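Is 3-hydroxy-3-methylglutaryl-coenzyme A placement plausible here? Inputs below.
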Amino acid sequence: GLPARVRVHEVGPRDGLQNEATLVPVEVKAEFVHRLADAGLRTVEVTSFVHPKWVPQLADAERLLPAVAGLADRPGADAVRLPVLVPNKRGLDRALALGARDVAVFASATESFARANLNRTVDESLEMFAPVVARAREAGAGARGYLSMCFGDPWEGPVPLDRVVGVCRRLLDLGCDELSLGDTIGVATPGHVTALLTALNEAGVPTGRLAVHFHDTYGQALANTLAALRHGVTTVDSSAGGLGGCPYARSATGNLATEDLVWMLHGLGIDTGIDLGRLTATSVWMADHLGRPSPSRTVRALAGR
Ligand code: HMG
Ligand code: MG
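Reply from A.M.:
I modeled the complex. Tokens:
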């Protein structure tokens, strides 16, 4: 069976924009987040509190988060969760000082990417995250754990299931309340997705704690999502207009486009609370700002471009 409702975790402002070479003004980012909220997204990942030299595009996090924070105070079901990435205590301090209520740490299943992305081994990065997750929870914040390179790695090739399962267990043991399984370079196929979710269940990880995070490099992101939904996953990460990539992973292209995801979900009769017309208009507006068309097939079809 398929779920009746899916929670879309929108990553466009963070994963989408982090790879853009040209700096996007903070006012444009704030409008992007507001437009996404007005289109019905109820989880919008806003930015990262990382070293500004590592991700220059997100160096304005101190200005952006306060500019959108009011969305979290909207009444009842209209309240928007605004998670931010924090790699270490310094990042967490910066985020909590601005009232962040949801944070995410980001680990890697492979040593190559842990080094490229965090300047650490896998073990060292988990040691770095332990006090971050503990303090976030003490502060009453939600703590998501991302795991990158769950399927393949640009330097190491296919990633063994048991390696992924091992790091997932350790992230849960740190106290993460949700795990997002990242196909950072978009090489996963549906059978591999089902195999990983099954292996995680066999290791005692409940599907209810899992989200999926697909990049669309080989055009498999929707098929992979459907495999995950059939397995019982109900939280899916995606990026408006298919923006995105990771500056520290060679060959990472855009995320699954939120519009493509919503088109499929609504076609399956699955509720998302998202207004596809408003969302598409937002991605067209952002594409105009960035000066190139959205790679999303659904945006192009609906916008006639
Ligand atoms: P490092 O060079 O090892 O840092 O980088 P350090 O701990 O040695 O500190 C060096 C200096 O940086 C110090 O300053 C720190 O204060 C400062 P100094 O004393 O020399 O003046 N510093 C900071 N400044 C501001 N904010 C901070 C911070 N931390 C240290 N938070 C570090 C280690 C983790 C900082 C660095 O590697 C980093 O910032 N990495 C971020 C990389 C990143 O953001 N990648 C993209 C997100 S992951 C992704 O996209 C994948 C995902 O989408 C899922 C998927 O698709 O797979 C999530
Ligand atoms: Mg990503």
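Short version: The pocket of magnesium ion (ligand 2) is lined by residues 15, 182, 184, 213, 246, 255 (CB under 6 Å).
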